[in-house]
Every structure is written in C-alpha cells, then in structure tokens.
Amino acid sequence: MSAEAADREAATSSRPCTPPQTCWFEFLLEESLLEKHLRKPCPDPAPVQLIVQFLEQASKPSVNEQNQVQPPPDNKRNRILKLLALKVAAHLKWDLDILEKSLSVPVLNMLLNELLCISKVPPGTKHVDMDLDTLPPTTAMAILLYNRWAIRTIVQSSFPVKQAKPGPPQLSV
C-alpha cells in the first residue's frame, strides 16, 4: 500500500461515524421509535421535517390500472402516518410560532385539519356555532388552535411584502 493510500485509510478510519438518518417508514415498523427519536437532543430528521414527511406520504395519490390518478386511499398506513404527524406536533406542544416558521401554509392546514378530524369535530361545522364550554377539552383546543392559526395567517398575508431592490446594498449613515 502506498503512503498516500495509507494516509487516506487513516483519515477515514479516524473520523467518527455519523449514525444514518432515520427514514419515515421506520416509524411505521417500530412503535416506540418515534418517542426515542424525539427525546434525542438533536434528532435527525428534525420534528418538523418528520411532520412534512409523514403528511407527504399519507397524501400521495395512487394510480389505478387505467393510469388515472386517484386520491390517497383511506387505509391503515395513511391513518397511522397522519397520527404520527399529530404526535410530533403534540411533542412540539402545538407551538404555532415553531409550526408557522417551519411548515408551509398548506402543510400546516393539512395538519390542523387532521387534528380537527381526530378531535371529533364534524366536517363542515361552523366553528362560530359551537359552544366551546359544552365540548370535550381536546375538541375545544383543536378548534381554538385552528382558528388562532387561521386568523394569524390571514393577518400575516394582508401585510404587503417589501420587495428587495436589485443592486449593491446601500449603506445608511
């Protein structure tokens, strides 16, 4: 072996191995893996990335024999993926600041709609017509969270976005 090859071998063997990133489907195979993963100081993938991956996989359309795109099937796999996304959001304590910074509006909308579904809010129900005092606490929390997010999103989108001017940066004195 040449000196150059020996140096390369020494350099690669002395580097610490980084553990491989956990894939989304591994959480389907082992129930306790999600809790273990979220307890890590710096989990890879990050919690918000997991939410995106879980919802992405659960909402993938299927193609039938005639090559027609079908909506995602309502099967056990997709329900579990949606539930895993909800568990990750619960781990983040439903912090809208974190969720809004990290997730796109459509993904966060999908997540909160899943929360409403699992909280037994009938689809198509006007939230203003509901008496929150008579609802179970989890259902009331889901409605409040969804409406807080909706109002925040509407308000944030109503502010004009300042376009960056092309050219060299201007120094202000």
Structure description:
It is built from 8 helices and 2 strands, in the order H-H-H-H-E-E-H-H-H-H. With 173 residues, the protein is mainly alpha-helical. It has one domain (25-63, 71-157). Strand 1 (62-63) and strand 2 (69-70) form a beta hairpin. Helix 4 runs antiparallel to helix 5 and helix 7 runs antiparallel to helix 8. The termini are far apart.
Radius of gyration: 23 Å
Order of helices and strands: HHHHEEHHHH
Q: Count of helical segments?
A: 8
Biggest sheet: strand arrangement = 1-2
Count of discrete structural domains: 1
Strand content: under 5%
User: What's the number of extended β-strand segments?
Assistant: 2
Mean pLDDT, rounded to whole units?
79
End-to-end separation:
63 Å
Low-confidence stretches: 10-17
